[in-house]
Amino acid sequence: MSFNQGSRLDTSQVQDRRGGMGGKIAIGGGGLVVLIASLLGVPPELLQGLGLGSGASVQQEATGPDSIAAQCETGEDANTRRDCRVVGTVNSLNRFWGEELPRFNMTYPRPSVVLFDGQVSTGCGTASSAVGPFYCPADTTAYFDTGFFDQLTDQLGAAEGPLAEEYVVAHEFGHHIQNLTGVINYSQQDPQGAASGAVRVELQADCYAGVWAGNATKQIDETTGRPFMQPIGRDDLRDALSAAAAVGDDRIQQASTGQVNPHTFTHGSSEQRQAWFVQGYETGDPAQCDTFGATDLDNPS
């Protein structure tokens, strides 16, 4: 899903900490195993530090000529640069959830968003690029290394396309919504298994990502009077579903170990992740994302 060229981006909603802590950490064979536990979720090793005041250090925000502040101004920038696409997606997500949650008598404090490379200090501890994108409940912040999007396609086999990347960002915002409602705690209370709390948390975040996608093109950019984003096409939807399938437990377990063990699932199967994204996209209603009340996670409706 692309942005209209004249749409204005608000870089104040994203912190650019790239270049602040060491070099890239490549994900090879061993790194793929790390992703099994943490991909597009809340890394278990980080969750252990919740409430312990882990004391993340403050990293200086990038201000150079290649920073988002210098490069990300319009929708055209978001269509050509990944970091700007994250900014535009964050802008859209904040606007959507800020307007949606009051319908459920909830307020929407925006999450912080950080772009980093190599490693980053967080309220949940220090994390490396190897854990993939993640949300830290302790500091209500979503963290992204945009280099992950290459791994999503090159190593995990997802299709390339804007909505595939935007799905990743929207999924992490889904965890922020869960942090506000309190259900994110089920990731620790029931951490693995085909119908575990952890799987239900991840599938609900996929559904919330679909809800946003189904509503995003209705947002009007006040500066232009035109939609902020262009309509979703069939190719866009295919790309998002490809990304959702690529990060299914069964797909990653098969690629890394050659076998699939549902008893150790933490995020749900490829088909489940696709199905719940579609549930959100087609209904456009967060109330239809009740994975905790679902008796059959394979069939949302």
UniProtKB/TrEMBL annotation:
InterPro entries: Uncharacterised_pept_Zn_put (IPR007343). Its main location: membrane. The chain crosses the membrane at residues 21-42. One of its GO terms (cellular component) is membrane. Keywords: Membrane, Transmembrane, Transmembrane helix. Pfam families: Zn_peptidase (PF04228). SUPFAM superfamilies: Metalloproteases ('zincins'), catalytic domain. It is found in: Membrane. It is a single-pass membrane protein. This is Neutral zinc metallopeptidase. It comes from Crystallibacter crystallopoietes.
